[in-house]
Amino acid sequence: MVAYNFQKQFLPLIRSGLKEQTIRGNRKRHARRGEWLQLYQGLRHPGASKIIPDPLCTAVLPIRIDFDGGKIWQIHVGGLPVLNISTFAKLDGFRDPDQMLAFWRSTHKEDFKRGFFEGVVIEWRSLANA
Predict the structure, then answer these.
(1) Rounded to an integer, what distance in angstroms lies between the CA atom of residue 73 and that of residue 66?
(2) Which one of 7, 57, 90, 123 has the fewest beta carbons within 10 angstroms of its own beta carbon?
(3) Cα dihedral angle (76, 81, 85, 87), rounded to 10 degrees?
(4) Nearest residue to 23 (alpha-carbon basis) of 64, 70, 69, 68
(5) Do residues 118 and 63 touch, judged by C-beta distance below 8 A?
(6) pLDDT tens-digit profile of 58-77?
(7) Beta-carbon contacts of residue 40 (< 8 Å; ≥ 6 apart)
(8) pTM of the predicted structure, to 2 decimals
(9) In whole angstroms, what is the distance from residue 64 CA to residue 102 CA?
């Protein structure tokens, strides 16, 4: 199992089943399709807690987000362009692309300065929503 930590702002959306994906930078080991995930808030801190019972990973796909002119210019998932960035932003827990951009600008400053982010999008399905 692979564990992922989430900021508090995403907890209600994960619990309600409205957020069933996360975007993460490349690292040595991500979850694989068919594995159980552990979703935490406060991981590696006293009082850490699981957000929901372990969901099943349904997909791990490469993602690239391009920033241009102070906006999200394009997103590619699995090598294919995302046709509706607004819908994608909502699936990732944001009100709209502007809120998603503000999050990226503040938490991924280096990627934003460079003009793009590359990593993976991890999707899951919780037993409650199966």
Answers:
(1) 5
(2) 7
(3) -100
(4) 64
(5) yes
(6) 999 999 999 987 889 999 99
(7) 3, 4, 5, 6, 48, 49, 50, 51
(8) 0.90
(9) 17
DSSP state of 109: H
Confidence of residue 128 (pLDDT cuts 50, 70, 90): low
> At 9, is the secondary structure helix, strand, or coil?
helix
Yes or no: say if 104 and 38 are a contact pair by the CB < 8 Å rule.
no
The pair of structure tokens assigned to 76 is 């590619």
If residue 12 lies in a helix (H) or strand (E), which one and from where to where?
Answer: helix 11-16
Among the listed residues 67, 66, 61, the one whose alpha carbon sits nearest the alpha carbon of residue 24: 61
Q: Where are the beta strands (DSSP E) in 1-130?
A: 2-5, 21-25, 37-41, 49-50, 56-68, 71-77, 80-81, 116-125
Question: What SS3 state is found at 80?
Answer: strand
At residue 129, the pLDDT reads 57
For β-strands 37-41 and 2-5, DSSP reports them as parallel
